[in-house]
Design a protein that fits this description.
single chain, Alpha-Beta Plaits, six-stranded mixed sheet, 3 helices, 6 strands, 27% helix
């Protein structure tokens, strides 16, 4: 969870195209009426441990980061800024260490631009999912 908290801190201190107030959660569960506001959720996803050498292990922590907001029309003018924000967030972590957890090194990002077709069709909600992976050796 230290890595997820460090991701939240990094996001909340960043200057992005839209104001972001990221929150660490285990289950991002919101009422649909609250989704008219932008939500950025950080969720610890999984941890892979492997032997690195005779004295250390390598820990790869996957962190899911969701960008969500209810839309009115779903046209490019409304959705493009949300896609752009998700891309900015991905760029924020690329090739960097976390400021408040410098032992964690970014090793990759997977980005599903439109994570949930169901959210789009049933709820008029944009949901984009980034999975950030950080490595710690100890």
């Amino acid at each position: 969870m230290n890595i997820a908290d460090a991701v939240v801190a990094e996001l909340n201190s960043a200057t992005l195209s839209q104001p972001v107030q990221a929150v660490r959660l285990f289950v991002p569960n919101f009422d649909l009426k609250d989704m008219k506001d932008l939500h950025v959720s950080v969720v610890p996803r999984e941890l892979h441990v492997r032997g690195l050498d005779r004295h250390r292990n390598s820990y790869d922590a996957a962190i899911d980061l969701a960008v969500q907001k209810k839309f009115k029309k779903g046209d490019a003018a409304e959705i493009d800024p949300l896609v752009g924000l998700a891309e900015e967030i991905a760029d924020l972590f690329r090739l960097k260490r976390l400021a408040s957890f410098p032992g964690a090194v970014w090793v990759g990002t997977d980005h599903r631009v439109l994570y949930s077709q169901e959210h789009w069709d049933q709820f008029n909600q944009f949901t984009s999912l980034l999975t950030l992976t950080f490595r710690v050796a100890k």
